[in-house]
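Minutes, methods subgroup
Present: GH (chair), OT, SY

1. OT presented the first of two proteins processed in the latest run. Sequence and structure tokens recorded below as shown on screen.
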Amino acid sequence: MRKLLLMSCVAATALMANSAVFANDELVKMQKNAKDWVMPGGNYANTRFSELNQITNKNVKDLVPAWSFSTGVLRGHEGGPLVIGDVMYFSTPFPNIVYALDLNNDGKIIWKYEPKQDPSVIPVMCCDTVNRGVAYGDGKIFLHQADTTLVALDAKTGQPAWSVKDGDPSKGATGTSAPLVVKDKVLIGVSGGEFGVRGYVSAYNIKDGKLAWRGYSMGPDADTIINPEKTTALGKPVGKDSGTNTWEGDQWKIGGGATWGWISYDPELNLVYYGSGNPSTWNPVQRPGDNRWSMSIWARNPDSGEVKWIYQMTPHDQWDYDGINEMVLQNQGNKKVLVHFDRNGFGYTLDRATGELLVAEKYDPAVNWATKVDMDKSSKTYGRPEVVAKYAPGSQGEDVNYKGICPAALGSKDEQPSAYSPITELNYVPTNHVCMDYEPFRVSYTAGQPYVGATLSMYPPPGQSHMGNFIAWDAKAGKIVWSDKEQFSVWSGALATAGNVVFYGTLEGYLKAVDAKTGEELWKYKTPSGIIGNVNTYEHNGKQYVAILSGVGGWAGIGLAAGLTDPNAGLGAVGGYAALSNYTALGGTLTVFALHGK
């Protein structure tokens, strides 16, 4: 493997020298066209902001359905559509059907691609059989299938150009993440931390699907592609084999750190950003140490995979606070920053060129597992959370039930992406308002079998009944500006627009529009099923549309999606969200809205 990685780095350098950056040049230009939606996050910065302003906070009350489309799939629809010219593309949960729809004909099917996958992958997919969307580049649509296959489809015909298997589902590796095309490569992560899969990001050549590089979340420097002298953490070189020296023995080989979240890219700095997830197992007693580099923010060179800087948010994770949430690239004056809302309940702002930590504050008042993050640069614990022992599973040993921990393992925010408006300079964040009891127990590793080692139950914070908030956040000050309560967790992605409107969906199935400055609810519409997908907007023939995939599921909706009734099933989510079945039912639907009479 070491030899392969070194050869891959050499090959990637040669490609860079040839300046094969056509796809990147194309996408950098295309992302600036507000009429289309060419990437899962709207743009490389993952701001999910649109400059379209036909729909405003004054007229959004007149929004009505324009057309709809049934996907034919019942599980959780956690992605969102792309719009490129006159065509809309989107993917479904397993079996990962990809549709190309004709916008000139109210969504008539241009082509449909349905991969043939072994259904044995379904039991090893943690927290529902979701897929977070497709990517576009070089005239191709890229799909990351549940069985980890990355396939390139001709955007006009749907015919496969190439495909490559990225991991081994028999050992727990699965594919749920949306790819990202950067320069002449397409990047994907991997799921499977609950099965002891060692996480990584892979970069494949866009032309032929050959592996250019693969960077692991932990392991020797050759595996992580970390330069011990040049790669920094909070401004200091990380040193030799930083990906193994905080693990006991060979535990890092089954160390987790999955990478199933979102990837962003800064073309000027030539860095991609993403997060790594929880270490394996969930029983922290079995893996003493900081367990680097799980739970971290990564800045990598997309040409070689080499890491420029890294920051571990939750060392020795004791709560399953996956660090995979999106990295939103925005500017504060002349400073290029990265904003990240972690599952651990802290909103982070970092200098994305250097990795300097600028802000780390709680974005849900209920967070109690840590009092704060140490921001004193002269302190030995600089950048680390100050943990409260009574809310730290494992601090009193195994087989002890640690109660009243906030947030729950699904975090103050899970993968559902936030939005940022450069007009208001606010981030709009769908959040969970949920606490948990957490009991770790000893578990043995067997390839392809669950490697969790914890029993959970989830519920609202003490004295409260609502399980979600939709908030506006000032990332410079680290403060909540306004907050709207929701009965259940807000598990959909947000969308901000130049019309001073922000959209998001609810688990009951409502698509809502709120005022970007005040949070006042302006409009809502009940779609056929709960919403865990991501809203987008586009313009076609002079008219602005808003599109959303509904179809309840995901971790929060796993009880409905998989027919589970045991309150402790779904890693504790089934009991916490049992009431959801009173409000919605299964069914995948794309609903497209426009202004009435416009």
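2. SY then presented the second protein from the same run.
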Amino acid sequence: MNRFRRCQITLMILAVTVLFQGSVQAEKTTLFVAPDGNDQWSGRLADPQQNDGPLATLDAARLKVRQLKATNPAVNIEVQIRGGTYPLTETVVFDTRDSGSQDAPVIYKAFPGESPVLTGGIEISNWKKCAKDPAGVAPEAKGKLWVAEIPGAPKQKWNITSLYDDDTLLKRARSNGFKYAEVEKENDFNRQGKKLTSVLEYEGEPVAPFDRSVHFRDEDIKDWPNLSDIELTLKDRPWLVNIIPLERVDTQNRIAHLAVDPTYQTISPNNRYWVENAIDYLDEPGEWVYNSLEGRLYFWPEGDINDMHIVAPFLQEFIRVEGTEDGPFVKHLHFEGLTLTHGLRDSLLEGDRGLQHDWEMHDKGNAVLRFRFAEDCDVASCLIKSSSGTGIRLDLHCQRIKVTRNHLHHLGGGGIVLSGYGPGTKDVNKNNVVHDNYIHDIGELLLHSAAILVAQSGHNEITHNTIRDVPYNGIVVSGCRPHEFYLVHRIPFRRAWVSSIRFEECEPFIKQGLAAQYHNRLDHFLPLLHARENRISKNDISRTLLKLHDGNAIYFSAMGKDNVVERNYLHENRGTAGAIRLDDNPSFTIIRENVITESEQGLGLKGAADVSNNFIFTETFLRGRSLPGWLGGTKKVDPVGNIFMPPASSKSSSGLYLTDSRATERPFYENLPKMEKSIYFTKNGSAPYSPKANLGSDLFTGQRADLNENSVKLVYADPMFDEAAAKQGLYRFRAGSPTEKLGIKPIDLRDVGSSLAERNFNGLDAEVSNELGRQVVFSFTNNTPFDQSGIHASMTVDGITMSTVDIIDIDGITKGSTTSIHAGLNAVGVVSASGKGDGKNFDVGEAWVFQFDENISSLKLEIDGLDEADGFTLSFPDGADEFSAKISGSSTSNGSFVLERKIPAGTPIHLELSAGGIARIKAIKITP
């Protein structure tokens, strides 16, 4: 055979081999799951046919896939799940035997054109009208309750903590806000860690366990027979809400004991708490309570109960993808197009380990979909809704997991959590993708929940997500603050962070910190903090902080270096401490090409950052508490190419000032850190917005700026935005703009956010969005109608009247017209009839009760003289409940407190100074 012929045969053999290998790789098996299926069938048919057809459950499909993979690992398997509802009472756990491969992944997806629904809830349909009212029921509910028996509930240890009518969360019975008894509690070290290291040495015996006692007044808390069902909602900090069951009650001494530790001690008698799930407080239509001792659910329906589809969440974790620690890991599992609903709410348990401030738990199965020890998996185009816990978690070792195009809404907990190992050298939660997700209306039960939380996880892509309508933070990137490391011996049971510290790995770094001059420098611990080099880009975040305070659209604390925040659109985030915030102990962060508008604060920075080419349309563009030279830190990066444009419509007094207690009376250029080639401009002609300088001057020198020079700092000039383009999300400039010579680049946000959500750009000067409506400002001076006036004193601005309902004297007694509101020092104080106090300010115990004659949707208080020792309590009736908020120097932004909440006309708003002194109300801004 000649050489040519041999070559022909060889090529033919190779071609046949390639074709054969291609056919093996292309081999595909499709299985089907349907509500009318049978787990004894083959699953090869989409519809039932005689004695064969689809499988009935997801778990049966998992086992069938495992069998197929065991015989042919190269087979490409797709499980198509037909439309319908699939109740789950046990978690479906996928382990390494259920893995796919890169060439042959295993895919669980919705059947084309259909919507399969996995529910962790149990339908409650056996309702009967109560023949006899339960003991203790509120008078309003007598004769109106329905009851459902819950068979086996005590045996199952099933505690119903939430209830739905289809997708609608029903309201659990809740008391009005109660005040704690005025009892001086001992210091049990149940405070923030940064306050403990000043009183606790690193070495020494562990301190006493946390104080779980709540001292109450009158009969606010009772020794109910089903005590473990009763929960207290504790809101002792502006950034956190605990919901904790009772363990026992001492009615004689009025002390209630909680079943688990609160995050912080309940210490202020002026704070309020609420009692939930007690029959005494079931007093209006739509409310329910659950009694596990009786195994009964009581409900007062608003309409015909026969028209309702009532579901009680039973299962917390629906799907868990879990390999083995340190490998092998589960790989190449994909979930697509599934709906998950009615998951159980998370409850604090003994042994839980918390992340920062207990905003989330460390390594806990409280999400409906969870990955743990997994790699190269996907969850795409899923809908997670009307569920009481968290949506998706990536715990411990998770790498190259993609979470894309999912819609998460109306959740009791958070949206998406990436949580690695506790502080230590183990760095294995990284390189994940959270992209194109739409997250809104989360944190309905656990108000402190974040839409996206990244803890001890790095090198992730968090891009093109839309986040809106959340009670607290939008995106959180967090690690362990230095002081927590020094508490591991003294308070080893402390839930938030300390309990998850990997001590043996951390001990050398702790000793290094102890030996240093400054113990609390983050540099000592950076190798242990793995939330580094995350890229947060092209996200659309709005309407954060709807329920809590001291939060942000994007929040960082104690994280690793070189996180990047770029090209995000942040709008309508009111009352923040900076729409983008570097809180305590941050490391170097890159903040570039972001647009921030319709907010009071632009940036809140407590650490080093590269701040470049950002466009900030807020009243105060930079908030910080450090000396002017710190920004940039050791990397010596000056802010460059930023544009600061406070809105023309704003009436705030912030303007050109850095919001620092030392800086309110000095012009901004004496308080800002260094900056280069930046622009300041506003159309607001009033002080302090318009600087006393000519257009074209450098505000740092007062001299005309030569834009061709490299020495330009901050130019007072119109950047000449193309306003029509800005309304489309393209922030570019007209010809002749000074930005060209300064090197400032346009920012294109037209594709910002998720493809699942609509985009809304309000342009340049949108201090008040269409949704929030007009702003009405009541400013107080010596010439206002309140001066020396008592109750019934009123003021009308823009057709809206604010009137004084009551005035409470310094001794807590209503004095009526004999006590007066006094507008002095261009602010409101209270004049006591008793003669106590100074008559210029509010004094502790004094209160002003006022109301408006129109409905309002937001309220902003501007407070003068408020420092960290001062504290106001603002409260008002909210239906059958009472809303209460604590206002302090640490919870306000430059003395401004913002409440985004609907308040009906005629609602008495009670404002009382609870601590401190010399505080006054400068102005009240409302949104009708």
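Chair's summary of item 2: The chain has eight helices and 68 strands.
Next meeting: continue with the remaining queue.
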